[in-house]
Amino acid sequence: MLKTLGVDHRLLDRIRDLHGSLGIDVACITRMVDEDTPRADVLRDLGERLTELGAALIRRSDDVDADVLAKLPDDGWLPEAGVHHQALIVAHNVGARPLRCGRIYLGLCGAACFPFYGRDLTGRTARHDRCRACQDRLFR
Question: What is the pTM of this model?
């Protein structure tokens, strides 16, 4: 947990640094375009910073995805979350890259789902009906 917080803080610092210098970079590039005096060093510097930051963000995204997937059933089917006990009748699929809103995951059909059974190693979700809309989206 502490390691990931450090990574997130470093990424946030890099984003803030980019935000702080981006106005100057845009002004410089605008001036180059207006005056038709291109400078490769300015373009390369900004391009490298954007590329390196983008790669770091993608790596972090992959780590977050792996952490999320490690807590969910391998098949991606989760019971619907709801206030009524009837909500536990239907299971929805959250897809290969689940979208999480707090503790709730969104099914492919948009339904709110909750991993009531954790990784569901005993297959309890199998007793729930599968959402037809999720199945259609999953097998397109």
Answer: 0.71
Structure tokens at 107: 């099914």
pLDDT tens digits, one per residue of 3-45: 666 889 999 999 999 999 999 999 999 999 999 998 999 999 9
The string of DSSP letters for 36-100 reads T---HHHHHHHHHHHHHHHHHHHHHHHHHHHHHHTTS-TT-EEEBP-SSGGGGGEEEE--SS-EE
Structure tokens at 61: 């995204």
CB 125 within 8 Å of CB 79 = yes
Contact yes or no for 78/125 (Cβ under 8 A)? yes
Chain centroid, CA 93 distance in Å: 16
Long-range contacts of 54-59 (CB under 8 A, 24+ apart): 56/11, 56/14, 57/11
Closest Cα partner for 117 from 60, 78, 75? 78
79, exposed or middle or buried, with CB in 10 Å at 0-12, 13-18, 19+? buried
List phi, psi (to 5°) of 108. Answer: -60, -25
